[in-house]
Amino acid sequence: MIETYWNHLPDIRAMYPEELEELILSFGEKKFRAKQIFEWLHKKKAASFEEMTNLSSTLREKLKQETELVTLKPVQELISRIDGTRKYLFELSDGNVIESVWMEYKHGNSVCISSQAGCRMGCRFCASTLGGLERQMLASEMLDEIYQIQKDSGERVSNVVVMGTGEPLDNFDALVRMIDILTHAPGLDISQRNVTVSTCGLVPKIYELADLKLQITLAISLHAVNDEKRRELMPIANTYSIEEILKACRYYYSQTNRRITFEYSLVKGVNDSREDAKALAALLEGINCHINLIPVNPIEERSYRQTEADAVLKFKNMLEKYGRNVTIRREMGRDIQAACGQLRKKYMEQSGEKEG
Ligand code: SAH
């Protein structure tokens, strides 16, 4: 049974339908109540037991006493005037703050969620990792990021990308539980194919994920074409080599038949030369994949600069010349935030100043 961090009550929004049934039966209630509760939690996205009006007041009271209903508290919302992107800051029950993003695309609406409060991977260009890992997020907290945003927007979420703060494969069990519940029919019922999980490359976890045969998209943050360069940008490259990552990706494809995405953040003068493009094309030869180029978002704590737009285009053309499938990630919400994790960091610094 999953418990919350702040007390030892079962975390009801993170329960599988079977677990919910077991709980309800242990209360001496009828089995069908579990289905009603699951719908309240995941379809109607209830924020309190009071809303569950088709349950008896006795059962609602029992649930209130014996379980915890995890609901995030919105503390800030920024809306981009350029493209309608919205950035949300939510407070968790123990005071930690996390960020999530809503993005509108032609093909549908995407929510980008955080999987950890902070991160311990230490990527040099990333703001989310500067303060280290505060704690793991619960499956219920990840789900509520999506639910709250959907409620706020009033529109359907068609895609979920786990690309916010944190390393999702470093919070593996909660991640898998979240995906299972998110893609479960009586809940929000998002197709697994519309869920993307991005990782800096925790090789053993990629194998574990592959064996689950979920139909989600795996995105690998590659960012460099050889281990030496990658180690400069990403400390995790000291633990796993690019060769090991690519082998794990081939295995992932063999188990799931899902095309892999490789993310490549372009940093001026570091990984954006013609040679880098050629080497990248060669590295991914024979892997059914898609490359997503991201002009790096400069963060003030580091001196990395963004590759200019025409050089990004050249890099893309070069990859295409070698037959690779490439897109350039559109920059969204430029006016409301800078790089991933910066809004959360700024907010925490400000509230720290207020407290101190
Ligand atoms: N930990 C996971 C997911 C979170 S980051 C991972 O490493 O994949 C999501 C993506 O944004 C990753 O590809 C990450 O490397 C990239 N990223 C983080 N900070 C960035 C920045 N300042 N500029 C461009 N890309 C960045």
Bound molecules: S-adenosyl-L-homocysteine
Please state the CA-atom Rg, rounded to the nearest Å. 21 Å
pLDDT below 50 for ≥5 consecutive residues: which ranges? Answer: none
Largest beta sheet, briefly?
Answer: 10 strands, mixed
Strand content: 15-25%
Mean pLDDT over the residues: 94
Secondary structure category: alpha/beta
Let me know the number of strands.
12
Helix content: 25-40%
Principal-axis shape equals: globular
Amino-to-carboxy terminus distance: 38 Å
Could you spell the SSE succession in H and E letters? HHHEEEEEEHEHEHEHHEHEHEH
Task: Describe the SSE topology.
Layout: H1 17-26, H2 32-42, H3 57-66, E1 73-79, E2 86-91, E3 97-105, E4 108-112, E5 116-118, E6 133-136, H4 139-153, E7 159-162, H5 172-182, E8 195-199, H6 203-212, E9 217-221, H7 227-233, H8 242-256, E10 260-266, H9 274-283, E11 289-295, H10 309-321, E12 326-328, H11 342-355
Parallel strand pairs: 4-7, 7-8, 8-9, 9-10, 10-11, 11-12
Antiparallel strand pairs: 1-2, 2-3, 3-4, 5-6
Helix pairs in contact: 1-2, 4-5, 6-8, 9-10
Describe the structure.
By secondary structure, the protein is α/β, with parallel strands linked by helices. 35% of the residues lie in helices and 18% in strands. It has a 10-stranded mixed sheet with strand order 1-2-3-4-7-8-9-10-11-12, sandwiched between helices. Strand 10 (260-266), helix 9 and strand 11 (289-295) form a beta-alpha-beta unit. Residues 121, 123, 125-126, 163, 167, 198-200, 221, 263, 265, 294, 296-297, 299, 339-340 line the site of S-adenosyl-L-homocysteine (SAH).
